[in-house]
Recover the amino acids of this structure.
């Protein structure tokens, strides 16, 4: 009986840990950060190889999230997505407020090849998760 209870506890803990972890193809960015991301391509699908704050001239995407300016009430945080691919890129995003324990899907638009996109967020956003990267072929 105790082995069964131990097994059930182990299974429930591993299930909760799996739900709490990020998807493997997800980039997390916080205000004030710059993230350089590299991908491998399979058709239109992209698979994240590396996402790092270390400067990388070979990165295909450069993500920047403006820092929060304290004391400004009408201030928006901008997510800047620089597309270094030769094709337009699509992705999905979720904005999160860790302090308020809230999250919501963000409205994003495709980023034209070789261009920069700006996505505004409210200053209560503590992090932004990006995933589902695909090229428009």
């Amino acid at each position: 009986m105790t082995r069964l209870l131990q097994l059930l506890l182990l299974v429930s803990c591993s299930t909760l840990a799996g739900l709490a972890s990020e998807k493997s193809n997800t980039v997390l960015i916080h205000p004030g950060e710059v993230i350089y991301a590299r991908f491998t391509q399979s058709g239109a699908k992209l698979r994240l190889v590396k996402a790092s704050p270390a400067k990388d001239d070979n990165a295909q995407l450069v993500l920047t999230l403006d820092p929060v300016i304290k004391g400004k009430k009408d201030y928006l945080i901008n997510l800047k997505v620089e597309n270094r691919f030769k094709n337009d890129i699509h992705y999905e995003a979720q904005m999160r407020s860790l302090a308020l324990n809230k999250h919501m899907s963000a409205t994003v638009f495709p980023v034209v090849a070789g261009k920069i996109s700006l996505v505004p967020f409210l200053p209560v956003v503590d992090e932004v998760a990006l995933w589902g990267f695909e090229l428009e072929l």
Observations:
- The domain at 24-136 is CATH 2.60.40 (Immunoglobulin-like).
